[in-house]
TrEMBL record:
Annotated region (Disordered), positions in chain: 89-120
Family from the record: Belongs to the cytochrome b5 family.
Record-annotated membrane-spanning stretches: 129-149
UniProt keyword Hydrolase, yes or no: no
Subcellular location(s) of the protein: Membrane
A Pfam family reported for this protein in Swiss-Prot or TrEMBL: Cyt-b5
Gene Ontology terms: cellular component: membrane
E.C. numbers: 1.7.1.1
Name of the featured protein: Cytochrome b5 isoform A
Length: 157
């Protein structure tokens, strides 16, 4: 976080959710994305909805933005959310915000190896029963039809 960043209250930020004035909270930082609404690849509705929901951090992370997009965000930076320490990891990227009242030195950036700040790859989805059963049923049906046509029809003829 930049020293001397302006602090905004959540209630103040929540008043900026229109096409004419749109602010986002991402990782405890406040961004004025009004001028970017029309240029956003996902459309302005995505940003407006994220602004209306309050903290857009989870939505931002779920999409998996590129480094270029993350770097571009800095041009929209306005300040930080009052009461939240915007943490920066060793790689220079944003990480999850930590409440300023959390124990320890709130001015110190979290350790790079902190397991709470390490982004985990998405877990592989477990194979559902239908993912296995349906192909097996189709295969069994095809085999049964082949057997019927090959052997049962020959006996009848």
């Amino acid at each position: 976080m930049a020293v001397g960043s302006k602090k905004y209250s959540v209630s103040e930020i929540s008043g900026h959710t229109s096409k004419d004035d749109c602010w986002l909270i991402i990782h405890g930082k406040v961004y004025d994305v009004t001028d970017f609404l029309e240029d956003h690849p996902g459309g302005d509705d995505v940003l407006l909805q994220a602004a209306a929901n309050g903290d857009a951090t989870q939505s931002f992370e779920d999409v998996g933005h590129s480094t270029a997009a993350t770097n571009q965000m800095e041009s929209f930076f306005m300040g930080v959310v009052d009461g939240i320490e915007a943490a920066v990891d060793a790689g220079g990227g944003d990480s999850n915000p930590a409440p300023a009242s959390a124990g320890g030195n709130s001015n110190q950036a979290p350790a790079a190896g902190d397991p709470l700040l390490t982004k985990k790859p998405p877990a592989a989805s477990p194979t559902s029963f239908m993912d296995v059963l349906l192909p097996l049923l189709i295969l069994a049906s095809a085999f049964a039809a082949w057997c019927y046509l090959k052997y049962y029809n020959n006996v009848q003829a």
